[in-house]
Amino acid sequence: MTSVRLLPLLHSILVLQVQLSSPLEDNKIPPSLCTGHPGIPGSPGANGSPGQPGRDGRDGRDSAPGEQGPKGDRGETGETGVRGLTGDRGDPGEKGERGQHGECAVAPKSAFSAKLSQGHNLPLTVGDAVRFDKIILNEQGDYNTETGHFTCKVPGVYYFAVHATVYRASLQFDLMKNGHVVASYFQFYGNWPKPASLSGGSLLHLIPGDQVWVQMALGEYNGFYSSTKTDSIFTGFLVYSDWKNSAVFA
Q: pLDDT tens for residues 199-242?
């Protein structure tokens, strides 16, 4: 009885729902009105385009250092590089210590000339040195008027010369080196009214300490003479030095 009364009510509700809904599209029935059987699965769709790259992942943790590997072979020598630019000048260094004394930078000198003074007493015995007592030149002091000896200080080659005026007697003298005769000279005097002359010279090689002088050869031949107008002169000078071999200039 109750179900029969409800039928008109349900019909009115159904009619009202159809009127209120929008018109149905072709072949489309709302699921609320009709439910069919599931359809056949469709074929797979086409592959999609590649997606955008993802973000970088986080850095991993540092691991412990590995063991040192063996030393590699030495590489080939490279080509010489281009020469670099000249650097700036450095600061001056400290002043060094003073060096030892060097050899003489100035050419050594040695020269003298002396003559007999007037009225000088000449030696009368053989072996006496003739003392030329009046100095003309003796800047280095190598000639001694007291002994008549020249003493070498600079090693080298010297030239010695003797010019004698001969008067009132014949003359013979020797040029001596360290007690040995180097050269002998003789002039005979024949009672001439005017003085004669006798000259001679020699080159000698000397070392420091060597001595050279003029010595009488014969006692009776002692005709050395000197006056205001004529002289007897003993001269010597250094020609060249070999001082590098001498301790005098070390």
A: 999 999 999 999 999 999 887 888 888 888 889 999 999 999 98
Token digits of residue 185: 């000279």
Question: According to DSSP H, which parts of the chain are helical?
Answer: 2-20
* Distance of alpha carbon 166 from alpha carbon 184, whole angstroms: 15
Q: What is the spatial distance between Cα 166 and Cα 223, in angstroms, rounded to a whole number?
A: 5
What is the CA 11 to chain-centroid distance, rounded? 130
Q: How confident is the model at residue 244 (pLDDT cuts 50, 70, 90)?
A: low
E strand intervals along the chain:
111-115, 134-137, 143-144, 149-151, 156-177, 180-187, 196-206, 211-216, 222-225, 233-241
Q: Which residues lie across from 114 on neighbouring strands?
A: 135, 234
Q: Around 29, how many Cα atoms within 13 Å sit in the side-chain half-sphere?
A: 6
238: number of Cβ within 10 Å: 22
Rounded distance, CA 39 to CA 137, Å? 152
SS3 135: strand
- Write down the pTM of the prediction: 0.56
Beta bridge partners of 176: 181, 213
Q: What pLDDT, on the 0 to 100 scale, is given for residue 249? A: 45
**Which candidate, 235, 220, 46, 61, places its Cα nearest to that of 135?**
235
